[in-house]
């Protein structure tokens, strides 16, 4: 399992089958591309996750990434918000996936970070690094917010920033994160529901509101047809 694939799996909603692949995850965390300190941090994250109860891990994930927008793993939400540009950006990304033989399930949004990382894990290293460089400011802000909230996922996002080799000042971003008003409190969520416009069409959320169906054991890439 490549490093980007591993980070994507660890950022994704922790489904129960993840615990069946514990040894594979631990082995992948010992990636020689990382510094010894990072390998130790990554392995500690994996071990802590494997030692946790799946229901507790799932509850913690929802509280982290599915409450408020500041920690959203939908990249275009941080770039375009709810503007029309977001829809076109998604169309363009889907086309890029398809050109390279990568098909999405109907429930998946193309800008979901774990999905993007799975895709990039199958692309040439230079291309993957370039894409991570372009989204480095988003990964950096997510890393800063995670660190400010004392979330263990901070190390995963910091590794992505480093993989993109971008000039991201994490200390400056952490200072900015410390000054932000939290959007994951009960009061903030109540205000969001009051202000949220009803959306129809292709961008409307699914009715059951479940996270996308992902599996750590499944590679979503389909081989390109000759």
Automatic annotation (TrEMBL):
Keywords: Nitrate assimilation. It comes from the Bacteria. One of its GO terms (biological process) is chaperone-mediated protein complex assembly. It holds the Pfam family Nitrate_red_del. One of its GO terms (molecular function) is metallochaperone activity. Residues 200-226 are annotated as: Disordered. NCBIfam families: narJ. This is Nitrate reductase. It comes from Stenotrophomonas humi.
């Amino acid at each position: 399992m490549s490093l980007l694939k591993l980070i994507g799996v660890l950022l994704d909603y922790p489904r129960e089958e993840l615990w069946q692949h514990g040894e594979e995850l631990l082995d992948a965390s010992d990636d020689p591309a990382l510094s010894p300190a990072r390998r130790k941090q990554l392995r500690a994250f994996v071990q802590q996750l494997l030692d946790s109860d799946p229901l507790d891990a799932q509850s913690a994930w929802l509280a982290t990434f599915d409450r408020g927008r500041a920690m959203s793993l939908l990249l275009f939400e941080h770039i375009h918000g709810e503007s029309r540009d977001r829809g076109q950006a998604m169309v363009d990304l889907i086309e890029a996936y398809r050109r390279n033989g990568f098909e999405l399930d109907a429930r998946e949004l193309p800008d979901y970070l774990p999905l993007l990382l799975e895709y990039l894990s199958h692309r040439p290293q230079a291309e993957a690094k370039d894409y991570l460089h372009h989204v480095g400011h988003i990964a950096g802000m997510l890393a800063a917010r995670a660190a400010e909230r004392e979330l263990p996922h901070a190390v995963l996002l910091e590794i992505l920033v480093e993989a993109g080799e971008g000039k991201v000042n994490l200390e400056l971003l952490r200072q900015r994160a410390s000054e932000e008003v939290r959007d994951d409190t009960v009061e903030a969520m109540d205000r969001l529901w009051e202000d949220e416009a009803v959306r129809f069409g292709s961008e409307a959320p699914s009715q059951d509101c479940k996270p996308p169906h992902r599996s750590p054991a499944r590679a979503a890439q389909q081989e390109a047809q000759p």
